[in-house]
UniProtKB/TrEMBL annotation:
<keyword id="KW-0812">Transmembrane</keyword>
<feature type="transmembrane region" description="Helical">
    <location>
        <begin position="165"/>
        <end position="186"/>
    </location>
</feature>
<feature type="transmembrane region" description="Helical">
    <location>
        <begin position="245"/>
        <end position="273"/>
    </location>
</feature>
<dbReference type="GO" id="GO:0004175">
    <property type="term" value="F:endopeptidase activity"/>
</dbReference>
<dbReference type="Pfam" id="PF02517">
    <property type="entry name" value="Rce1-like"/>
</dbReference>
<feature type="transmembrane region" description="Helical">
    <location>
        <begin position="333"/>
        <end position="354"/>
    </location>
</feature>
<protein>
    <recommendedName>
        <fullName>CAAX prenyl protease 2/Lysostaphin resistance protein A-like domain-containing protein</fullName>
    </recommendedName>
</protein>
<feature type="domain" description="CAAX prenyl protease 2/Lysostaphin resistance protein A-like">
    <location>
        <begin position="260"/>
        <end position="345"/>
    </location>
</feature>
<keyword id="KW-1133">Transmembrane helix</keyword>
<feature type="transmembrane region" description="Helical">
    <location>
        <begin position="294"/>
        <end position="313"/>
    </location>
</feature>
<keyword id="KW-0472">Membrane</keyword>
<feature type="transmembrane region" description="Helical">
    <location>
        <begin position="207"/>
        <end position="233"/>
    </location>
</feature>
<dbReference type="InterPro" id="IPR003675">
    <property type="entry name" value="Rce1/LyrA-like_dom"/>
</dbReference>
<dbReference type="GO" id="GO:0080120">
    <property type="term" value="P:CAAX-box protein maturation"/>
</dbReference>
Amino acid sequence: MASPPSLLCLRPCPPLFGRSRSRSLYLHLSKQSLQPITSPRPCRRSVAAAVAEQLVPRPLGTRWRWTGVTGIVACRCFPDAKNGPPTPPADMVLGATKCCVEKSLDGWPVLRRWDVPWEWPTISLTMVACAVSFLLTGMVEQSILEQFGFKVGEATLDEKAEVLFLGQFSTTVVVLGAIFGITNTFRPFSDDIFRYKFEEPFKLQNGWLLWAGIGILVAIISIALAGAAMTFLNGETPQRETDSLVILLPLIGSSGISTACLLGITGVLAPILEETVFRGFLMMSLTKWFSTPYAVLITAAMFAFAHLTPGEFPQLFVLGVVLGFSYAQTRNLLTPITIHAIWNSGVILLLTFLQLQGYDIKELLQAS
């Protein structure tokens, strides 16, 4: 009569990767099918040798070694016809599969995800902090202007432009301070998070200036096609009375000070703020749960909604997609910031030139 199976406890060798945790591995094996391996120093085998032994096919009845995160478990297995050959642990299979997938994406940086250290509560808290900081900064600025007796109706165009620049500057500082203040509690994190690097601007794989040039060309073509499609589908050009450009029309080309302030707002401060919030934080954080293309699309939609200009939503969405993929390719925030800055500054400079040539800018915007 066969002896009943027994529950044996095998303790793995000390960790190979510096982890202090140790677990007991319980194997429900029959006494007849388990023979211990005697090795004077089984724990000092190199990781490379252990992996190589796993990759080499072995006939039945030979030694099998399974490597996990806690060490190496070794046993001599003689599988019978009923149970078949032994199988490696599930965590080993999943880890190997994940490693293979990550290796296969090395040639496609635009598809790789970020190693995000925070969870949903941090994302929600940070976005709420950004919105509250934005609103409170505007209210405090308005209160300070009233205390100094500033009246918008009596101010000159240059004074209005200067006030707008100071308001945008303070908003940028406060909102970025909220983001970095919350996320810095998770340091140290991966070096591709909040990365602003000027090195290797023309590197083919991730040169920030090279891909910014590619992105601006793609954006011009894509936005032109989106505008043409909207005009064709709507049958008429949508009204743009509430668009930001129409609101800024009195300042465009009025003087050198006004133009410089507008370029500082639209070409420097706004791109740094918006790209850090939407691409540098939100899009990057979403890759913890979504693939990178989905994170790009979600962020582009939120970016378009945040501008509160329904007539420009398709164009802003397309621009957001280009900005997102350019950032995913280079992992450098200078890329979307440069695209955003060139786009905004180009529009302001073009409208200023047309204004100086005597064209009706408002009529041109309505027809565009």
